[in-house]
Amino acid sequence: MKKFPKHFLWGAATSAPQSEGHSSLNGKSPSTWDKWYELAPEKFQKDQGPEHTTNMYELYKEDVKRMKDIHMNSFRTSIAWTRLLPDGKTINQEAVEFYRSYFEELRVNGVKPIINLFHFDMPWWLMEKGGWEVRESVDAFAFYAKTCFDLFGDLVEYWTTFNEPMVHVECGYLYGYHYPAVNDFKKAVQVGYHTLMAHTMAVKMFRNGNYPGEIGIILNVSPCYPRSESVEDRQAAEIADLLNTKSFLDPAVLGTIPKKLIDCLAESQLLPVTAKTDLIEIEQNTVDFIGMNYYQPRRVKAPERVNHPTSSPEDFYAHYDWPNKKINPYRGWEIYPEALYDVAMMIKNEYKNIPWYVSENGMGVADEERFMDETGMIQDDYRIEFMEEHLEQLYKGIEAGSNCFGYHSWTFIDCWSWLNGYKNRYGFYQLDLETDQRRLKKSGHWFKELIDHNGLK
Ligand code: BGP
Questions:
Q1: 163: Cβ below 6 Å to ligand 1?
Q2: Is 319 exposed, middle or buried (0-12, 13-18, 19+ CB in 10 A)?
Q3: What is the pLDDT of residues 30-41, one digit of tens each?
Q4: On the CB side of 333, how many CA atoms lie within 13 Å of its CA?
Q5: Vertex 401 angle, CA 386 and 156, to 5°
Q6: What confidence category does residue 127 fall into, taking pLDDT thresholds of 50, 70 and 90?
Q7: 214 burial level (CB within 10 Å; 0-12, 13-18, 19+)
Q8: Ligand 1 pocket: which of 361, 417, 431 to mutate (most atoms <8 Å of CB)?
Q9: Residue 344 has pLDDT above 90, yes or no
Q10: C-beta 164 within 6 A of ligand 1
Q11: Residues 6+ apart with CB under 8 A from 324
């Protein structure tokens, strides 16, 4: 038996915009997702927008029972900023009642809520003022965070400020996948910086208010592997790591921004506008724990051509297509469980062995009905294999001393996924889009047994 540490958190993650539904109802104001869908529905897979999603707004009580049925002891979701504070200032009482009741339901059923504050869902009222491009967003977020701590602090033990802050930076300001879909490296750096300061000021609010519990941040981590041991390739991997991972991980955990990153941005005239006391705030407001979303590694090589002035991260590193890679063909992501061991070691050796957990890991597969047996259960053995392989590596990391306290899959019930709609399914429960009906998959059974054993057989 490969036993995991006592009190290990086993569970799954989702987010408010991907699971609640009622996106224009019950006092919620639009986020960029609601607005973008209104403006350009053709960008969304099969016209599937953010309005309906999994409908946990209505069904959360039954869904918490489903978590309990598979013995999950923890669950992450987020609060929708636009539901709680529709105009950024006024509290929506209906949202307070909804979230309090939801979080209580989790607690009384022995499922620890891990509550995140921002999961790509920028309020439209703030986007109209410039979103993360403007400093005002930092204060607006700090106010929202404090409001959440005041209203729900008695129910939440683990808070996180952001989910994958690099994603709204790169998808919104470099690669065109999220609103406002611009391609502007300088803006992207400023957006990232304001996000970092919003995170920092939320942590400060949390410390100043002496709320119970702990606070962290959830980052997407794709360990960088160079094509070769050449100086150029290794340098490319180092910069890719600095830009994509250390840019948030270092300030969040160590309270510093890597000097090499600053030098590299300065050389390319990409440094953001900052305020005088920012560095002190960053230094004084580090996190208690880290969540790491791991799906795939990043393979890089030296850039093929370098533009002056620098116009994109590809001027620092190029993507390397490793010929030996194993791939999930539905999502197009490489499957490389070994990286999870490397993540565990990185946190142990470079980040003070801070407590951390795997906050997302999973496999999205299209048309899963193909794998349904005569009883109506999806036989998703590929997902079980995927998770087992990743857990083996995590176990190895824990055995080597990494301070990991949990593993969350993405996701609990099949959910709506941004521009991909419902194409790829990730859940332990299958979702019927017509009826909202949920059905346990084989992986859900497997997960329950894993939790009962607190480990792998
Ligand atoms: C993470 C996000 C999730 C989720 C997941 C799966 O990056 O935090 O919101 O969507 O990836 O990815 P996708 O839905 O794009 O297949």
A1: yes
A2: exposed
A3: 999 999 999 999
A4: 17
A5: 75
A6: very high
A7: middle
A8: 417
A9: yes
A10: yes
A11: none
- The CATH number of residue 325's host domain is 3.20.20.80
Going by their DSSP bridges, the two strands 2-3 and 455-456 should be labelled as: antiparallel
Q: Does the beta carbon of 274 lie inside 6 Å of ligand 1?
A: no
Number of domains in the chain: 1
Region at 61 (left for phi over 0; alpha for psi -120 to 50; beta for the rest): alpha
Domain that holds residue 190: 2-456
The set of catalytic residues is 164, 360
**Hey, what are 454's tokens?**
């607190």
Please tell me the predicted confidence (pLDDT) of residue 308: 79
Percent of the residues in the chain that have a pLDDT greater than 90, as a whole number: 98
- pLDDT tens-place string over residues 300-341: 999 988 787 888 999 999 999 999 999 999 999 999 999 999
Q: Is 410 in the pocket of ligand 1 (CB under 6 A)?
A: yes
Banded model confidence at residue 382, pLDDT cuts 50, 70, 90: very high
Testing ligand 1's pocket by substitution, the residue of 177, 331, 360 carrying the most ligand atoms inside 8 A of its CB is 360
Q: Does residue 284 carry a pLDDT above 90?
A: yes
Nearest CA, atom 14, ligand 1: 417
Query: What is the rounded average pLDDT of the residues 139-154?
Result: 99
What H or E segment, with its residue span, contains residue 11? strand 9-13
